Amino acid sequence: MSTLTDPPKPGFRLSQLIYDTRYRSITIQVIALVLIIGAFWWLGNNTVNNLNALGKDFDFGFLNSAAGYDINQRLIEYDNQMSHGRAALVGILNTLLVAFLGCISALVIGVFVGVLRLSKNWVVSKLMAVYVEGFRNVPLLIWILLIGAVMSESMPQPREFRGEDATQSMYFSDNVAVTNRGIWIPRLGFSNSISGEEAVAPIEGATPVASGGADWLLILGTLALSLIAIRYIRNRADKVQQSTGDRPTIWYQQLAILVIPVGVVLIALGATIVSPYLKGFNFTEGTHLRNSLIALWVALSLYTGAFIAEIVRAGILAVSKGQSEAAAALGIQPSRTMKLVILPQALRVIIPPLISQFLNLTKNSSLAIAVGYMDVRATLGGITINQTGRELEGMLLMGAFYLTLSLLISGGMNYYNRSTQLAER
Amino acid sequence: MSDTPVTYVRKEMLGQKAPPTSEVGPVRWVRENLFSSPMNAILTILSLYVVYVVVSHVGPWLVNGIWDADSLTECREIIAATGDGHHSAACFGVISARWHQLVFGYYPSELYWRPVLALVVFLVGIAPVMFPSLPRKLYIVTMAAPLLCFWLLWGGSIWLPIAIALGFAVGVVAHKLLDTHVSSLAAIIGAIVLPLIYWLYICGPLAGGLASIIPLGIEFVPSRSFGGFMLSIVIGLSAIVISLPLGILLALARRSDLFIIKTCAVVFIEVIRGIPLIVWLFTAQLLLNYFLPPGSSFDLTLRVIIMVTLFAAAYIAEVIRGGLAALPKGQYEGADSLGLNYWQSMQLIVLPQALKISIPGIVNTFIGLFKDTTLVVFIGLFDPLGIASAIRATTEWNGIYWELFLFIGIMFFISCFSMGRYSLYLEKKLQREHR
Q1: Residue B269 or B299, more confident
Q2: Can you give the pLDDT at residue B83?
Q3: How far is CA A173 from CA A56, A186, A289, in A?
């Protein structure tokens, strides 16, 4: 019909790049890309120029040269003639050690406090509230310094343990010594060690013992196998319960499988407890927990524990009362309601923030600098950088380590979230 | 059947008996709250014992505290002179003797009014944002506050902040002129580009020229003199104020449909969050000079503020992303169906609700950020902990630990705890659901 206007002419005008929603997103992204590439080029160019001006190159070869410094706490063999790379590895293991210990103790503290804070007991719940608010609202650094100061200033010196009229005594029938140089606890020695290390008598007249990685691997391997077997027994019991309605009694089987194999391995290795004792001016033998480790570990656990307590409390409160009432109406025993109804729902709320607290704890372990704990920041990011003048490379490697650790943990958490997520349309 | 009156029914009511003593008042409260079961009784006794141990050890130490002593030796002499000589007492004298240092660091003492005034200006500026019932005119202070605080703290010529402020005026004027005479697109581009050119090339010479013609200003104070709680507050507050808008933008970018923008936001957020703040602070200290043009160097305090801001922004972005994800899809679809464009729907529909949901998380991030300002001690700035070790290094106060830690801890506790309470107040006030 004649009233129809002409259809718009096909053709491309420049203003469409901005006003046409079909092209606008591409325009914006291209501009952003150009800006970002420009910024990176600028930064890279500056870095190259600055490095040239300083006469430095970009080279990771320093990792193979001799470190030349000692590390007082090491989980693997290390001395100052070994390479910077080895020193970095010692630091990484120390970081992982304090993070692992801290996560476990923070979880235990957090669960206890979180549950107790919900208690109907007024004194207990108030006490827990004071703990949680106190630790959450004061910087972690202050707690680390405070606990470090308590350890080094308020604890007795080793010489006070000496002599007939010693003013201090060891705890747990002469097995644990708490001093201002750290805490000594007993360790396990193996008289039939398979590690190939030379056996030495810890004290004159005692059986010579050694303790190596292979022994511990054997013990941990046995333990892992036992746990798998326990899981298998439990699954079988679940199947029996689902088919017959009766749950077989399995706790004694589980206990036996947990204890007996490890016990046999320990006896075969000839395990003996080696207690610390005073020799000269200091304690010797046993395991020495340094003040730096204790201050960092205790402060990290108490601080993160306060956060975990709030997460646990919120998780339990998030499960509505109707759930436990419904479980009771279905005739589920009160003892199993917690496991079958409340916990699965609470865990969905608890686990994601819990993992991110573990992540925080791991990153906060870099505050080790406050008490001189030799973590990765102190070795790779501290002494190595100072000795070699390789700030750029050292910081990059350290950043890469923390980033990898974080991404691994948060990747695992995302996987868990996806598997437990409630489906939305 | 006889109609004799039924005598065994009582005619008048008996008076009420008092309830048994175990069911009223404090006794009942104690029974129900403290000793309702054997387990509870054990817990109660255990907690009371813990409280007793703590109070019996720390109580006398606190109560006997010595407030007027000029050195640790003098304080110990006073303690030895009073009482039996065996009791413990705190030497709070260090706090009264070094109060100014703990609060202001090495800021010149005759200029203490400036940081205080800056704090007042900041509080007045933030008040209308925090409490909407206040008069809208206060927003004038809010807009002037950043530059005014900057000038009060660092001092120097008054022309620099004025010249910087002129940049905003340039932007506004450019937008108005171009909008009426050219096109709205040119107006937006002009409003962004012209002030940038102004700040980069004209602002500095202009301020310098004006200062040489009319030298008007107050004494310049270098960043090295900043310290104590003042430094924590300056770093903390500037990072808080800048990181919130930055975090919102990052969160929107991360949820955007534009692939490149989204990727950049994800990489930025994950890299920042994956690495501890202390590593970033060392980066600011050791590496920033590598990334900037040769010969340029700028203030360490400023670098720290930028690093802490970026760090907090990444965390805030994640909190707000949570809020955005928690909104029902219907809200986004509703905004689209009303025909609002992206920024309108974000501004009018999505962000107000998402921000409300994320308030607790945002405030928690701010609390964490404020606590993290203590980390700057490791790169040589004098935050309260840095001042504390400086005090400990003097001959008068060599060997004093607990009093300083206690004081600094309490100060942090007060500020962080009140921030937490404010977030609870805000949550309650914004609560729209029926209970």
Answers
A1: B269
A2: 67
A3: 59, 11, 19
A122-136 helix and A291-318 helix, angle to the nearest 10 degrees:
120
Partner-chain residue, chosen from B33, B185, B290, that has the shortest CB–CB distance to A121: B33
Task: Mark whether B45 and B174 lie in a shared domain.
Answer: no
Q: Is the Cβ of B398 closer than 8 Å to some Cβ of chain A?
A: no
Mean pLDDT of A316-334: 87
Q: Is residue B134 part of a domain?
A: no
Residue of B nearest to A128 (CA): B47
A138-152 mean pLDDT: 90
| Closest partner CB to B34 (pick from A123, A406, A424) | A123
Angle at B418 between CA B412 and CA B421, to 5 degrees: 140
Global ipTM: 0.86
* Number of domains making up chain B: 3
> Is the confidence at residue B5, as pLDDT, over 70?
no
User: Do B271 and B203 share a domain, yes or no?
Assistant: no
* Domain containing residue B426: 224-435
As a whole number of angstroms, the distance between CA B58 and CA A146 comes to 15
Q: Do residue B275 and residue A363 have CB atoms under 8 angstroms apart?
A: yes
Measured CA to CA, the distance from residue A266 to residue A253 in angstroms comes to 20
The secondary structure of A1-59 as a DSSP string is -TTPPPPPPP---TTHHHH-HHHHHHHHHHHHHHHHHHHHHHHHHHHHHHHHHHT----
Q: Which of B50, B286, B401 lies at the smallest CB-CB distance from A395?
A: B286
Domain match, B276 and B174 both: no
Contact A127 B50 (CB under 8 A): yes
pTM, full prediction: 0.86
Q: Is residue B128 part of a domain?
A: no
The verdict on a CB contact (< 8 Å) between B34 and A119 is no
Exposed / middle / buried, residue B144 (Cβ in 10 Å: 0-12, 13-18, 19+):
middle
B184 with B265, same domain: the answer is no
In a domain, B78, yes or no: no
CA distance A290 to chain B (A): 20
Residue B372 lies in a domain: yes
The predicted structure's pLDDT at residue A41: 93
| Per-residue pLDDT, A336 | 81
Q: Tell me the domains of chain A and their CATH numbers.
A: 60-152+290-420 (1.10.3720.10)
Query: Mean pLDDT score of chain B, rounded to an integer?
Result: 85
Chain A residues in contact with B409 by the CB 8 A cut-off are: 138-139, 142, 146
Same domain, yes or no, for B320 and B357? Answer: yes
| Average pLDDT of span A36-54 | 88
pLDDT at position B275, please?
92
Q: What is the CATH number of the domain that holds B267?
A: 1.10.3720.10
Residues A222-257: tens digit of each pLDDT: 999 999 999 999 899 889 988 988 888 888 888 998
Phi, psi of B183 (to 5 degrees): -155, 165
